[in-house]
Design goal:
46% of the residues are buried. The protein is α/β, with parallel strands linked by helices and 449 residues long. The chain is built from 14 helices and 20 strands. The strands form four sheets. Strands 2-3-4-8-9-10-11-12 form an eight-stranded parallel β-barrel. It has helices at 14-18, 44-47, 53-57, 60-66, 107-120, 138-142, 172-189, 204-214, 244-255, 260-272, 286-292, 295-299, 303-312, 348-360; strands at residues 21-23, 39-42, 70-73, 123-128, 132-134, 157-158, 161-166, 193-196, 221-227, 240-242, 278-281, 316-320, 371-375, 384-391, 394-401, 407-410, 419-422, 427-430, 436-439, 444-448. Helices cover 29% and strands 21% of the residues. It has two domains: 28-367, Glycosidases (TIM Barrel, Alpha-Beta Barrel); 376-449, Sandwich (Immunoglobulin-like).
């Protein structure tokens, strides 16, 4: 679900930004898979003409080959019919927390898909919608006291969305029922965690209560839909959070010709949070695609540089269904509107290169205290975003043309030295022989050693 964030930018000088050395502080995440993963959001309804788990299952070997590590499934629970939107309704208006949406198949189909995903090496997380349900959720009949009520006694409609009603987190029994429902999916289906919808619309103390209780079964991965710049207390619970401010600010930067320095300032704000949780970086998701446009509508010439950034900055890259095609359409949200796959996945190798680098080079580990991230000075600081990530003797150099024009420039920073491999061109470059670049519009370069 979409959470519109207010954007504030820390005003830092160019000199401080180009020399800023950003260290991480996390101590536990680098020891496991979370530091090198990526997340691929699966919209089952629109993924195939069938729109089922079984049909999607056939696509998983392709995604494994592309380097996808974690599959996030949009809500798999049944959709409430009362006051639903469109002919199919919103997947975020649940009718039951412990059943499967028959539109997608059966519980056995889901379990089969999860088992196959695990066999292929994927982690699997599901969307968890804790703030609200649909109007005819089973609890509205069995436990109407679980819901917030208006003065007239009617269920309280969620802000701006009249197909859903809000739960009452002051009710301890409701909290326990919600936790039991989450436990159900871990015990019965073997999933590896949750993407928690509108996490900051739910009191933080619920998540503080829920996570340790659910993890009595086993450790899980938790990503929350909130921006930690606005909700820092949630970072003590979740492994990763959203970067809504970055997404909105970067769109405004491109469309409104704002200064690149403001993007750098915002990145410093995010980095100053530290890494008690990580950030997820993305150019599209289900909300953005359907309501605000594809990544190409939002970012135009800098679409690819933004994607490179998302996979190489400190945190976790997040990809949406169809971006590997690429999908150039806004997908319907409440109706059947399948992605128009054509067998030619033009962006698959692009993402495979980025995901492979993320997984293999320790300089891109999310939340590793050994990793530093440094902005680099160039002769075109108003157009070029350049940064160096370093972990011991391993380094990743990223250079992005964030402008709408060709740029000839030099990197003026002694920290870039020695021989690197260009991961896209698969060529070597010795920066002792010069640090000049001739970038066309949309150009980017990523080097590793």
């Amino acid at each position: 679900m979409k959470r519109v964030m207010l954007m504030t930018v820390l005003a830092l000088g160019l000199a401080s930004c180009t020399t800023q050395n950003i260290k991480t502080t996390m101590t536990d995440l680098p020891k496991n898979w979370k530091s090198t993963t990526n997340i691929y959001e699966v919209n089952v309804r629109q993924y195939t003409p069938e729109g089922t788990f079984r049909a999607f299952e056939k696509e998983m070997p392709r995604l494994k080959s592309m380097g996808v590590k974690t599959l996030w499934f949009m809500p798999v629970t049944p959709i409430a019919q009362q006051n639903k939107k469109g002919s199919l309704g919103s997947q975020y208006a649940a009718a039951d927390y412990t059943s499967i949406n028959p539109e997608f198949g059966t519980m056995d189909d889901f379990k089969h898909m999860v088992n196959e995903a695990h066999r292929l090496g994927f982690k699997v997380i599901i969307d968890w919608v804790a703030n609200h349900t649909g109007w005819d959720h089973v609890w509205t009949k069995t436990h109407p006291e679980f819901y917030l009520k208006d003065p007239d006694g009617k269920f309280h409609v969620a802000s701006g969305m009249d197909d859903i009603i809000e739960l009452d987190y002051k009710n301890p029994e409701m909290r326990l029922a919600m936790i039991d429902a989450m436990k159900f999916w871990i015990r019965e289906t073997g999933i590896d965690g949750f993407r928690c919808d509108l996490a900051s619309w739910v009191e933080v103390d619920f998540w503080q209560q829920a996570r340790p209780e659910v993890e009595k079964i086993r450790p899980l991965f938790w990503i929350g839909e909130y921006d930690e710049l606005e909700n820092p207390e949630y970072g003590k619970v979740f492994d990763a959070s959203y970067s809504w401010k970055w997404m909105h600010k970067s769109e405004d930067y491109y469309k409104k010709n704002q200064p690149l320095q403001e993007l750098k300032d915002l990145l410093v704000q995010y980095s100053n949070i530290g890494d008690a949780s990580m950030r997820a970086w993305f150019t599209s998701n289900h909300d953005e695609n359907s309501w605000n446009g594809t990544e190409y509508e939002k970012y135009g010439d800098i679409t690819k540089p933004m994607a490179v950034f998302s996979a190489t900055w400190n945190g976790i890259p997040l990809l949406y269904s169809g971006q590997e095609l690429p999908n150039m359409r806004r997908l319907e949200f409440f109706e059947k509107d399948p992605i128009r796959w054509n067998g030619n996945y033009q962006m698959a190798d692009f993402y495979k290169t980025l995901f492979s680098l993320k997984a293999s080079n320790p300089a891109l580990r999310g939340g590793d205290p050994a990793v530093t991230t440094t902005f680099l000075n160039t002769t075109a600081n108003d157009k070029i975003l350049a940064y160096l990530r370093k972990n011991g003797d391993r380094e990743v150099l990223v250079v992005l043309n964030m402008s709408k024009e060709a740029v000839n420039f030099d990197i003026e920073d002694d920290r870039v030295s020695g021989s690197f491999r260009n991961v896209f061109e698969k060529t070597k470059r010795d920066f002792g022989q010069g640090k000049n670049f001739n970038f066309r519009v949309t150009d980017y370069a990523v080097f590793e050693k």
